């Protein structure tokens, strides 16, 4: 952020709340350059869930990722951006806005499953509720991306990615629970949770 003496106290409070967030140890979280055109003040975090080596199938991981994985296997990636405008925004319905992105690769045969987007969005809503993160004006899109290989790459298997882009307005500067909820979402996309009761996991791609 540079010279913090020019930063509004409310945004400093929000930055402190982010630092207090308790995220899962499987999540690699780091600050990255924030966008400069979306709001006068912003902070951006990048998250990755990466398997760094073979893992035992002892229940630590759930679902298909419980198999032995190759080294440096990326399971999911995401971005968490907190925007702040001291003047407020009619579009945001507040002074703060959280903008997020999560992407993970799934099994190719799940590409035609019309429920994928609904599952992804439902997990966002349930994660925020589970962490007691109060918000308003939520919106987002879930996208399935099919990657097919040809020519010299024709031997590669088709791949299906699921992307969730979502934003919402937190109820004030205490955004700790919002980052914790979002970090759990990234792990859910990676296939790592246990999940709350009644929440369906996103089907992971098969890892050979």
Q: Termini separation (Å)?
A: 43 Å
Q: How is the main sheet built?
A: 6 strands, antiparallel
What are the low-pLDDT stretches, counting only 5+ consecutive residues below 50? 54-70
Structural class: alpha+beta
Can you list the strand order of the major beta sheet?
1-2-3-4-6-5
Instruction: Output the number of helix runs.
Output: 3
Give the topology string: H per helix, E per strand: HEEEEHEEH
- CA-based shape: elongated
Mean pLDDT: 79
Helix content: 10-25%
Q: Write down the Rg.
A: 18 Å
How much of the sequence lies in strands comes to 25-35%
DSSP E strands, number: 6
InterPro entries: DUF3000
Protein name: DUF3000 domain-containing protein
Pfam family, one: DUF3000
Organism: Arthrobacter gallicola
Question: Can you describe what's shown?
Answer:
The protein is of the alpha+beta class and 208 residues long. It is 19% helix and 35% strand. It is built from 3 helices and 6 strands. It has helices at residues 9-19, 116-130, 176-189, and strands at 27-32, 41-51, 73-89, 94-106, 135-147, 159-170. A 6-stranded antiparallel sheet has the order 1-2-3-4-6-5, covered by helices on one side. Strand 3 (73-89) and strand 4 (94-106) form a beta hairpin. The longest helix has 15 residues, at 116-130. The chain is elongated. The model is unreliable at 54-70 (pLDDT under 50). It comes from Arthrobacter gallicola. InterPro entries: DUF3000 (IPR021555). This is DUF3000 domain-containing protein.
